[in-house]
From TrEMBL:
Annotated GO MF terms: ATP binding; pantothenate kinase activity
PANTHER family attached to this UniProt entry: PANTOTHENATE KINASE (PTHR12280), PANTOTHENATE KINASE 1 (PTHR12280:SF34)
Entry-linked Pfam families: Fumble (PF03630)
Keywords: ATP-binding, Coenzyme A biosynthesis, Kinase, Nucleotide-binding, Transferase
CDD domains for the chain: ASKHA_NBD_PanK-II_Pank4 (cd24123)
Superkingdom per UniProt: Eukaryota
EC number per UniProt: 2.7.1.33
Name of the protein this chain belongs to: pantothenate kinase
Single GO biological process annotation from the record: coenzyme A biosynthetic process
Functional pathway: Cofactor biosynthesis; coenzyme A biosynthesis; CoA from (R)-pantothenate: step 1/5
Ranges annotated as spanning the membrane: none
Origin organism lineage: Eukaryota, Viridiplantae, Streptophyta, Embryophyta, Tracheophyta
InterPro entries: ATPase_NBD (IPR043129), Type_II_PanK (IPR004567)
Provenance organism: Eruca vesicaria subsp. sativa
Length: 395
């Protein structure tokens, strides 16, 4: 994203960052200009409702300066926040989560004069998913055999579930309620592994390029199938069809070929399949440990990609014999940032807050109605620049 894209120049009052190993996710509330002067409507008892949009953006962590410029140019400038000794700076509290909330706290302080209000990463992920499932219609869906189906969320029968967040690494969290969760497992073979190995093996330069390659590839060129080992037949006694992958990248042993002799497309496809399959299987095993039937997958590794979702779904379906269900989330990559954002509401009524500094007060986030997606097509996943219509109650 161009940090100086003026489309985003608007008065921002709430901002949350999730600074991960690979990507920085930004969620901010942009009040509509058509309310009263400060964007808020007073509704009685000193409570005001501010209508606006939740906006999303992401940056590569290695290009953190772009993110800093984005915040400086599009957010601070338009929020009356000055650096370094500006009087309006305390109006602006920035929620931050992910490892980078610790790693880059000084950098943000030095360059922008803003201090992070840190939120725990796992806690934020759980808050983000619960917020989405309870508030945003058509958020969760299944994807199997090319069919996408939105899942109706029953608020009284939401827990327990397993959250699998596929970022650079993978965290698996058993969620039992609001704020009730336990990180039960994880694996270091995640999105970072896919991108890192992909870059080394295919010489591609970006995640999008790697995905594009994988679209065109055929994993069977490199993966050793059950049929390759069993002379073209199934191993039906243990339930393995001849087309099942017996060994990811296994053909490279017997092919006698150098890396350059494989098509990068096929390598990318095998890699994507290997990582997705492995995560699906580990997720299922952890769901089994705790008797969980519902597994929600998030994190930017998924990127709404059909092949990835299909592979994960098939793995969960296959291993659980149809008992467990893999579900995906439209705001997959923004779970932590959204969770940190919703933590504004956890702040207690502070008696010592100065009048009018409403951005520091208790904020209750509501998404308005059933048709609250302004730009997002219901079949697609979230892209930069798309927004959720919502309102914030400040009490
Ligand atoms: N534009 C992108 N650039 C780099 N990686 C991306 C991109 N889009 C998706 N990804 C994938 O998403 C992963 C990061 O997911 P994310 O949930 O943001 O995790 P983290 O918090 O660790 O950065 C990357 O490792 C990569 O596999
Ligand atoms: C350390 C992390 C929580 C950081 O989160 P991320 O930036 O990858 O989203 C994650 O990478 C992780 O859970 N890694 C797996 C470590 C393990 O359980 O083996």
């Amino acid at each position: 994203m161009d940090p100086k894209d003026s489309r985003f120049s608007t008065q921002i009052s709430h901002l949350a960052l999730d600074i991960g190993g690979t990507l920085i996710k930004v969620v901010y509330f942009s009040p509509n200009g058509d309310n009263c002067e400060d964007g808020s409507i007073v509704v009685g008892n000193g409570c005001s409702v501010v209508k606006g949009r939740l906006c999303f953006a992401k940056f590569e962590t290695r290009k953190i300066d772009d993110c800093i410029e984005f915040i400086r140019f599009n957010i601070l400038q338009h929020s009356g926040v000055q650096h370094p000794n500006g009087t309006a700076r305390d109006k602006f509290s920035v929620k931050a989560t992910g490892g980078g909330a610790f790693k880059f706290a000084e950098l943000f302080k030095d360059k922008l004069g803003i201090v992070f209000d840190k939120e725990d990463e796992m806690h934020s992920l759980v808050c983000g998913v619960n917020f989405l499932l309870k508030t945003v219609p058509r958020e969760a869906f299944t994807y199997l055999d090319g069919q996408k189906e939105f899942v109706q969320i029953d608020h009284n029968d939401l827990y327990p579930y397993l959250l699998v967040n596929i970022g650079s690494g993978v965290s698996m969290i058993k969620v039992d309620g609001d704020g009730k969760y336990e990180r039960i497992s994880g694996t270091s073979l995640g999105g970072g592994t896919f991108l890192g190995l992909g870059k080394l093996l295919t010489k591609c330069k970006s995640f999008d390029e790697l995905l594009e390659l994988s679209h065109q590839g055929n994993n069977r060129v490199i993966d050793m199938l059950v049929g390759d080992i069993y002379g073209g037949t199934d191993y039906s006694k243990i339930g393995l069809s001849s087309t099942a992958i017996a060994s990811s990248f296994g053909k490279a042993i017997s092919d006698g070929k150098e890396l350059e002799e494989y098509q990068p497309e096929d390598v990318a496809r095998s890699l994507l399949r290997m990582i997705s399959n492995n995560i699906g299987q580990i997720a299922y095993l952890n769901a089994l440990r705790f008797g969980l039937k519902r597994i929600f997958f998030g994190g930017f590794f998924i990127r709404g990609l059909e092949y990835t979702m299909d592979t994960i779904s098939v793995a969960v379906h296959f291993w659980s014999r149809g008992e467990a269900k893999a579900m995906f989330l439209r705001h997959e990559g923004f779970l932590g940032a959204l969770g940190a954002f919703t933590s504004y509401k956890d702040q207690s009524h502070s008696n010592d807050l100065k009048p009018h500094h409403h951005t520091m007060q208790r904020a209750v986030l509501k998404c308005s109605g059933d048709d609250n997606f302004r730009h997002t097509p219901v079949t697609g996943n979230l892209n930069d620049g798309e927004a959720i219509e919502c309102s914030i109650s400040l009490v």
